[in-house]
Amino acid sequence: MAKPFKRLLLTGAAGNLGKVLRPRLAQWADVVRLSDIVSITPANSGEEVVQCDLSDKAAVNQLLDGVDAVLHFGGISTENTFEAILKANIQGTYNIYEAAHLHGVRRIVFASSNHAVGFYEQNQFIDAFAPTRPDGMYGLSKVFGEQLGRYYYDRAGIETVCIRIGSSYPEPANPRMMASWLSYDDLQEALRCSLFTRRVGFTVLFGTSDNPVKWWDNKHASHLGFHPHDSSVRFLHLFPESGAYPDPDDPMVRYVGGTFVTTGPIYE
Q1: pTM of the predicted model, to two decimals?
Q2: In the chain, how many domains are there?
Q3: pLDDT for 249
Q4: What does the alpha-carbon distance between residue 182 and residue 231 come to, in Å, rounded to a whole number?
Q5: Catalytic residue among 94, 120, 138, 152
Q6: Residue-wise pLDDT tens digits, 171-180
Q7: For residues 47-57, b (16+ Cβ closer than 10 Å) or e, as one string?
Q8: Which helix (H) or strand (E) holds 100?
Q9: Which has the closest alpha carbon to 128: 141, 145, 146, 140?
Q10: CB atoms inside a 10 Å sphere around CB 229
Q11: Residue 222's domain is classified under what CATH number?
Q12: Which segments within the chain are labelled E, that is strand?
């Protein structure tokens, strides 16, 4: 049976989520092209491995040759200096979009982040039309990436789904992640919906599982048909009521972005 795509590109393939996604993408494409700035384990059947610095415009242009769609997970995934973020996340994402335009790639799924709205408080409930409130240089780079997607859709017709990933780990590591947790299976489902929905235009999807506490409303992404199947409720036992309540001004319990709002170069 023919697969939907001839060639999918996954950037950031050596990262934590890249390693999770790598074996899951083969069902959707004849060839999965895997890329990262660091070396990657050798290609399996149906894979291509390309080591690439995303800030190198010429290299990225070659990277997108023959690609049908891009899953852009590359770049720095934690808070860092502006200079580092500029090269990896801002220049790198621009290079991806410009190369996609030159090669006629029609869809990009951009791994954005909850840190694009990290300065909202946890008692607020927002949708994708709420103004961005980044909580650091990393969050700022994700806002920039989202706006690139908006621009390249309006100007060049490249469709983008920006998935504002909450916290995608095997299980929540702290009480904050009980609201932001995204299971690996639900991440895969979000990617499937983003790739296979007939028309997505420019869409922002909040990437969380069906958790008991909700901070984000996905009504503006309902056309994707994303319905998470997992929930953090099964991890409630990890965070029992202890009677010891944190200070309400503690970033971990006040802000969506947690400690990101108080870390980073601006505070050095």
Answers
A1: 0.96
A2: 1
A3: 84
A4: 8
A5: 138
A6: 999 999 999 9
A7: bebbebbbbbe
A8: helix 92-103
A9: 146
A10: 10
A11: 3.40.50.720
A12: 5-11, 29-36, 47-51, 69-72, 107-113, 126-127, 159-165, 202-207, 216-217
